Amino acid sequence: MTDLALPARVRRLRRPGSVGTTVAVVVLAGVVAAALLAPILWPLDQSAVDLSRTRLAPSPEHLAGTDDLGRDVAVRSLYGLRVSLLVGAVAALVAAVIGGLVGAVAGSVGGWVDRALMRVVDTVAALPHLLLGIFIVAMLRPSLGAVIASIALTHWLSTARIVRSELLSLRNRPFVDAAISGGAGRVRVLTRHLLPHVLPRLALATTLMVPHAVWHETALSFLGLGLPPHLASIGNMINDGQRSLLTGAWWASIVPGLLLVAATLALAVLTGRWRDRLDPRVRAELHL
Amino acid sequence: MTAPVTGRRRLAGAGVVVRRRLLVAVPVLAATSMGMFALGAASPIDPAQQYAGAAAFTTSEENLAQIRANWGVDDPLPVQYARWIGNLLRGDLGWSTSRHEPVTSVLAARAGWTLLLVGTALALVLVASVLLGTLAAYRRGGWFDRALRAVAYAVQSMPVFWIGLAAIAVFALSLGWLPAGGLTDITATGTDPADVARHLVLPVTVLAISQAPWFVLFVRDAVAESLRDDHVLAARARGLPGRVVLFGHALRTALLPFLTLVGTHLPELVGGAVLVETVFSLPGLGAVTVEAALGADFPLLAATTLATTVVVLTANLLTDLAYAAADPRVRLDD
């Protein structure tokens, strides 16, 4: 029980560009490259079933074994990751557009509009978002569009808050006053002077959202409420694998999940570093 | 600095806060229910055919029209909405089309198990995260701190149902220590508490582990920060032992914001419970919600979503009150 401040250890811990970043870059690059190149390297007929080779354990021929319909789990997981990442990225973009618009209106108009919009944001934030997502998908019937709508409508809140608070803090800066006294109109100030400052934050928030969007899609697909069953997505595969799990073929569920965890964890580590660099308060601590 | 406020005066504003929160909660619930109703109305599903089930193929068009007329599903939307809300307020939550029984009896039979699952998991998370987070903060930068944070970040990116399946594969199937699912043994005739407890070990632990990273990281950062506070340094300077400083001074200041976190994190916990119940085939609200979603059962889905919203809003109010009771600097009547 020595000194409580521990400055030396903290400095060592906070050193930027650590091993973690390198590992995350390598993992993410490897996984994404494999997922992108999968159709070229391992062409696969999604509906091909080989009932003579069901639930084979991992071997050199099938690195992660086969599922209960005789399909190679490793290759299919890569296909699934492609779908999950694509759906997640598109949904995060849609959410960012919704949130960005709401935040921009709230932050630039202000007054009762701002209060009303922020009240809406608080309301949606208080709802259990998985339940809300399930409700949206159930009412629109499970489909690709419904899944994207379900993710976008439950995930736009953070971007709305970020854009609004950035605009509020930028609004009173001298360069904005200068632009206004120079005769710039409301729209010009917003598009030429404010938005360029907001964009890096918005881009970061959107990237931070991608893993959450992927998890949401995976959860819906796992519940059988997401993408159509014939389409390999990570959630669908984990759901399918449940049948094999009870017979001892754990790989059919666990391997696709592991791939998802590796990809989203690497993405989260990298975006975390990116955020540390954008935030001057944390940056100061980095070079403590 | 304001003059110190006595406990009694502090809670004098509680009524005001409750009233103000209700003023917000009513529009929130109204807006939520309207949004849900609009979505339900936009749904391509015909409630009359849904009610008839397979018989819809043989039922004559007149009969279906009769069902629609009885239910008033062709009335203008505001009329339907008003009728639905009126029934809700009178305690009639409607008829579940997927379970073919009143929504109230579905909720009554199942809400208890979900509450038990969520409540036990929350208690476990709170105790574990305060202990682990404080330990990590005390030796921050040490191996325990680094390992704990690495694990926390890793767990944060694992879907809860995937953790659940992995736990089943290891503890139920490979080792055979615990049951893989269900609430009781198949042969059981009633719900014996010991049997239920054994079946709940895995689900509760999985739910707690999946929610823990948030809380652990929060406690760790909050305690680490408060260890640099003046009053903690002063306590150190007076030569108090490390344990006393840690638990008596640093932890106490750090725990206040924790209350708020519990309130805001409750929706996440509910979502986790839905998934855990599905993985472990528990007869709670989560499993029934999924069933209702697959069958596009609007009355049941709307009721569970609204009921959870009410619970979450109430919990937020309670955390606000607890915060005010615990922190002399917060005054409710501001």
UniProtKB/TrEMBL annotation, chain A:
* Cross-referenced PROSITE patterns: ABC_TM1
Q: Where in or outside the cell?
A: Cell membrane
Q: Where is the ABC transmembrane type-1 domain?
A: 81-271
Q: Topology with regard to the membrane? A: Multi-pass membrane protein
Instruction: Name the keywords, alphabetized.
Output: Cell membrane, Membrane, Transmembrane, Transmembrane helix, Transport
Alphabetical list of InterPro entries matching this protein: BP-dependent_transpt_permease, MetI-like, MetI-like_sf
Q: Where are the transmembrane segments?
A: 21-42, 85-113, 249-271
Q: Does the keyword Ubl conjugation apply?
A: no
Instruction: Identify the main location.
Output: membrane
Please report which protein family the annotation says this sequence is part of. Belongs to the binding-protein-dependent transport system permease family.
Output this protein's name. Peptide/nickel transport system permease protein
Q: Tell me the Gene3D superfamilies matching this sequence.
A: MetI-like
Q: What CDD domains does this protein's entry cite?
A: TM_PBP2
Q: Which domain of life is it from?
A: Bacteria
Automatic annotation (TrEMBL), chain B:
Q: Does the keyword Membrane apply?
A: yes
Q: Where in the cell is it found?
A: Cell membrane
Q: What is this protein called?
A: Peptide/nickel transport system permease protein
Q: What topology in the membrane does the UniProt record assign?
A: Multi-pass membrane protein
Q: Which family does it belong to?
A: Belongs to the binding-protein-dependent transport system permease family.
Residues of the ABC transmembrane type-1 domain: 111-319
Instruction: Report any Pfam family annotated for this entry.
Output: BPD_transp_1
Q: Which organism is it from?
A: Micromonospora tulbaghiae
